């Protein structure tokens, strides 16, 4: 096997491992819900948006015939479905959660109908689906910026997860390289904001270490 082929295989494996590692961070929330029989301190919307993101990229990978995208997002979709099911089971107010789920799934079904019926050309469908997935992924990476502003305001990083930050950084870097190797901007470009926001989070962890957060809270009391 040529050197380039070996590198591509290794890069593909790295993308799978890092991404599944990032998705598996939700297992701690799953364990929390199971142990406490509640959804206290667990956010539902990230599970739902990640599910939609996984299903979109799964469709893109299937249309493109990319095994790496298919494996990662198929497993990711299964995990998010598990998290969503657990949240629905333990959530006392199911109506609002079901409404959010139905709304996003309805948008997803409309998207499938549009790409399947109104865009018959496979190449045009691939490009438009790639653009949709890219925009959605970028919006996901940029959505926590409000939390970062809150960290600066409160001088506390308690609302941030260091392990998730590292997982997001490694995942974003690996997929950016993967997209670059494939010359696929739809894969490469949307992961760049993930790299940038991860470095911002790491800087915040350095600026406001959690030990300092505990001392700060003690002084406040």
UniProtKB/TrEMBL annotation:
It comes from the Eukaryota. InterPro entries: SWEET, SWEET_rpt. Keywords: Cell membrane, Golgi apparatus, Membrane, Repeat, Sugar transport, Transmembrane, Transmembrane helix, Transport. It is found in: Cell membrane; Golgi apparatus membrane. Coiled coil: none annotated. GO terms for cellular component: Golgi membrane; plasma membrane. Pfam families: MtN3_slv. The keyword Repeat applies. Its main location: membrane. The keyword Cell cycle does not apply. It is a multi-pass membrane protein. The chain crosses the membrane at residues 6-23, 69-90, 97-117, 129-148, 160-180, 186-206. GO terms for molecular function: glucoside transmembrane transporter activity; sugar transmembrane transporter activity. Mediates sugar transport across membranes. May stimulate V(D)J recombination by the activation of RAG1. Belongs to the SWEET sugar transporter family. Interacts with TRPV2; the interaction probably occurs intracellularly and depends on TRPV2 N-glycosylation. This is Sugar transporter SWEET. It comes from Otolemur garnettii. The gene is SLC50A1.
